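General statements about sequence and structure are easier to judge against a single worked case. For one protein, we set the task of working out the structure tokens from the amino acid sequence alone. The sequence in question and its structure tokens are set out directly beneath this paragraph.
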Amino acid sequence: MKDYPLNMRYGKSKVHVMKIINPMNDENSKFRDVFDFDVEVLLQGDLESAYTYGDNTPVVPTDTMKNTCYYIAKKVHFDSTEDYAMDLADHFLQKYPHIDQVDIKIEQNSWNRINVDGEYHDHCFAFGGNEKHNCHYRANRNGNSKMKSGISYLRVMKATQSGFEGYPMCDLTTLPPTKDRVFCTDIMTTWTYGDNPPKGKFQTKNMEIRSNFIKVFSGPPKGGEYSKSVQETMYKMCCTTLKNHPEVDFIEMTLPNIHHFNFDLTRFGMDNKNEVLFRSDKPSGTIECTVYKDEATKQENNTYENYTR
């Protein structure tokens, strides 16, 4: 029964994959690299009969999708989650002619190689905490693929050299202007590469872009750089990255303002100016922006509204 038009897709999510790699390709070597990530697979194509008539003929079981995630992890060599995502998407397009589009979304956990007496260990790692590396690859049969990479929950802080003043004041404004405050946030950002991104270069590019964000946020090691607002700083972070990486089309960024306030010590006869503080992250300011390399890219991005969410 088909009563109303529809769009449709389905897939498998929260597929945990860990791959231990011997990059030396030497059985006697104890050196290992680790990839640890969760995968989501979403398929689109000639699936309407499954929804409108209960015809399961075109429905690739989600259990098959899960198995495929492990199969591709074993079959192919990859140096980044982006490379793995491209191989995984290509597999579904090649194997199932009725599938027109594949979305692969990956969230990667970080494991940092342990340093023992100044030397990095061959095969021991410490969990990297809340920070995640993300990617979202969309592949379709018209060859117009898109790769989005990103970072989430990278917590950074300026202990000084940040202020906020000059804003509209009204009868409901209680926030006092300041030239010196703590600026703490979790960097939540994605950057979208141009059409048909090349494989094999993502790991280096991602490290460079992450480093660029931190460098601009911090400013020079001696003295830093004053931030007039979260908005100003995030825009600088995005602009500098676009300038240094022309292969990136646009950057989306969210910086929640994780507030830190002075604890009132006057009742104990003590002054306290940005020395003893407490965190108050609920409610928090949420500052967002999307910065494009040019106006044409901004207009084109409207076509990928569903992709960017």
The two ends are 31 Å apart (CA to CA). The chain has six helices and eight strands.
